[in-house]
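Before any further analysis, backbone shapes were mapped to integers, which produced the following:

***
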Amino acid sequence: MNSNSSVKGRGAQKNTNNKFSAYSYETRDDFLEFCRVEGEIADRNKTQYIPVFPKTIVNKVTSPDVGMSYSMNMYQGCEHGCIYCYARNAHEFWGYSAGLDFERKIMVKHDAPKLLEAKLRSKSWKPSTIVLSGNTDCYQPAEQEFQITRKCLEIFLKYRHPVGIITKNALILRDLDILKELNEYGLVGVNISVTSLSEETRRILEPRTTTIKKRLEAIQVLSEHGIPVNAMLAPIIPGINSHEILSLAKAVSEHGALSMAFTVVRLNGSIGEIFTDWIRKTLPDKAEKVLHQIQECHGGRLNDSRFGLRSRGDGIIATQIHDMVRLAKRKYFEGKTFPKLNTTLHESYKDGQLKLF
């Protein structure tokens, strides 16, 4: 056993240092050898749920190239463990690492439904779509136990307020009853993330996520009930899933998706170190090629903070990805349209029931 041993069932293979902390931590080979000799477990690799109590839950999104105005997150950290996840860096604000801590220390906002209701009842609030999972997946494994997302959906229905959902977990179908009611009023739109059609690729990129088959089935079931679905083919990673764009677009369209969107991977903040460590351990033969191609998409860097370009990329490889996406949209989404959500009902339901006068 050594420091290069795989952390099973996780995306990140180590904890990176928190840039806001004066301390750094290192797992040394001599410590691991001591544990082996003594028969002790150096790392139990367990997920910990930590209750937190924020004062607000709805966040205004000010980034000019993010397609939402407001978001909310019931959980911070995400057990899905997607190695590329941009939200990893946010864990450092809570005093944790963007690496393994992000996947194993999940903060749970039990008061989210109450905070949401207070926001929607506020006299100053004007209805605008609030997106669940602007940062971490609202249907990650923690939701099976805590059901905070379901409780929030009930609040959105009570106040007739539009809600968007981003997820890669088929657990969303548990709430099909509420989603159908929301959709009767044009109040819900769902974004399902499908990163690859290969289970092997899915398993190493997103180790604790729903299988590709289950995600496609979720798109189909939602679509069959008239609930609009946008497929998120994101991120596109050169050398890993960039060759799948057409096949991905075909699959999600055939299962009922009304539109598709994509981003080119960028490894901002600590994610560059986490991803580099992961790919050299997981795909050593491909590692340097993939890293160089990602850099080619971002002016020679893994990280790209340029608004308008950071999620789109530039250069030859990024241009090829964009060309392929345009072809996919023409081929598989011609005539399909994702509807705008209804913002006209909420004012009449500010107090939780229809105002007659």
